[in-house]
Amino acid sequence: MGDALLIVLLGLPMTLLVTVLSFTIGVIGGIPLMLGLRSRTRWVRLTCRFAVDLIRGVPPIVWLFLLYFGVSFGAIRLDSLNAAVWGLGIISSAYLAEIYRGAFATLPSGQAEASAALGLGGTVTLTRILAPQALRTALPSIATYLLSLLKDSSIASTIGVADMVFNATMFARQNPATAGIVPFFIAAAVYLVISIPVAVTARRLDTRLRRTA
Amino acid sequence: MDSLIDLSEYLPRLGQGLVVSLQLTALSVVFGYLIGLVFALGVSSRQPWLKWPALVAVEIGRGIPALVVLYIVYFGLPALGVLFENFWAAVIGLTFTAAAYSSEMIRAGIQSVPAGQREASAALGLSRTTSFVRIVLPQGLRSSIPPLMGLAIMSFQGTSLAYSISVNELMSQAYQVSTITFQYLAVYTITGLIYAAIAVPATWLSVWVEHRMARGAV
């Protein structure tokens, strides 16, 4: 039990690293995709819509295998951490773009009209008037998505990233007689310990935002 | 071009894998939503001995990765002396995950039914059970259809995790074909497109249903 606990916990920094890096890629990458989804030019909008749907239509494990085994720059292949972070980062960009877009869609059109009437330009309206309000609405969804990304980061173990689940699997295979299910229960408990406070905060934030809105 | 011709020999294997993926999806969605309904009723119950076990099961199912659920079923149940084929271990694991997620959607649907419906049926002299089963539940389930459709699509994609416990579904077949042919990029691109070819139109369908229902047309 003690060994299993130690080995699984040794994977925790990697789990968090994969989650944080791919989330960062998603938070940034989602912005241009969201602008594309809101574009007034039809073909830009449709292309971005198709890209977002296609990215989300392919399961994460397929993305990771595609990047890990399939992509090479000359003789250089992506290592497993890079493949996992970029794979999950691409997927996050698509999901977050959709969350951003949804949040902008909830803003009353009067906000954009009022800032136009005040003579503000398109960029100022977007960054100073619309984006701060949209971000408030989007926060609970973003937090929920971060949690699902934390759970999806476990898929990185299938391409050999030494996260909690990878360590749990290794330990279970090396100690088949004694370990069995224990390392997985430990990993499961750690995911719960991390995700429940975030989930509670997100729910509270959501209720508060609803009340003020 | 030669290599692509080589690859076409192996395409039927991907097709066989897809059939297994769809079977996994169908089983886990049907059983998962039924158990999800039971969980939803449990969580909404006023009886603490019904409410808390259901709530804990739902939060565990939603809080831990589906991959870990699969490993627990696959590595864990044999330790308890229960042996399952890989396929059924995957069905059990994916069903539990689908049940946990669907229960929250069903509960939200039931909660969205206006209190006036319950009051009106009480005024008409219907018993509490009849009013719930015949009046509230059908309307609640109806409004949870769009999210449940979305969850079914997620479940279909989630079957790819069964690769990790060696179920012969699409992802496993793709892995085997790629190691035989060394055409990693081509094989995983085709595999990704197969998943997307089902998931993307299904997503559009669920969006369409949602819009129709929002207009009150269904």
List keywords for this structure.
heterodimer; A: 213 residues; mainly alpha; MetI-like fold; two-stranded antiparallel ribbon; 9 helices; flat; B: 218 residues; 10 helices
Write the layout of secondary structure elements.
The complex is a heterodimer of chains A (213) and B (218).
Chain A: H1 2-10, H2 12-37, H3 42-57, H4 60-70, E1 72-73, E2 76-77, H5 80-106, H6 109-117, H7 122-152, H8 164-174, H9 182-212
Antiparallel strand pairs in A: 1-2
Helix pairs in contact in A: 1-8, 1-9, 2-3, 2-5, 2-7, 3-5, 4-5, 5-7, 6-7, 7-9, 8-9
Chain B: H1 2-8, H2 11-44, H3 48-63, H4 66-79, H5 86-111, H6 115-123, H7 128-143, H8 145-158, H9 170-181, H10 184-214
Can you walk through the features of this model?
Chain A: Keywords: Amino-acid transport, Cell membrane, Membrane, Transmembrane, Transmembrane helix, Transport. The complex is a heterodimer of chains A (213) and B (218). Chain A has helices spanning 2-10, 12-37, 42-57, 60-70, 80-106, 109-117, 122-152, 164-174, 182-212; strands at residues 72-73, 76-77. Chain A is mainly α and 213 residues long. In chain A, helix 2 crosses helix 5 (80-106), helix 5 crosses helix 7 (122-152) and helix 6 runs antiparallel to helix 7 (122-152). The longest helix of chain A is centred in the middle third of the chain and has 31 residues, at 122-152. The termini of chain A are far apart. In chain A, 42% of the residues are buried. The model of chain A has no long low-confidence stretch (mean pLDDT 91). Chain B has a domain at 21-170: MetI-like fold.
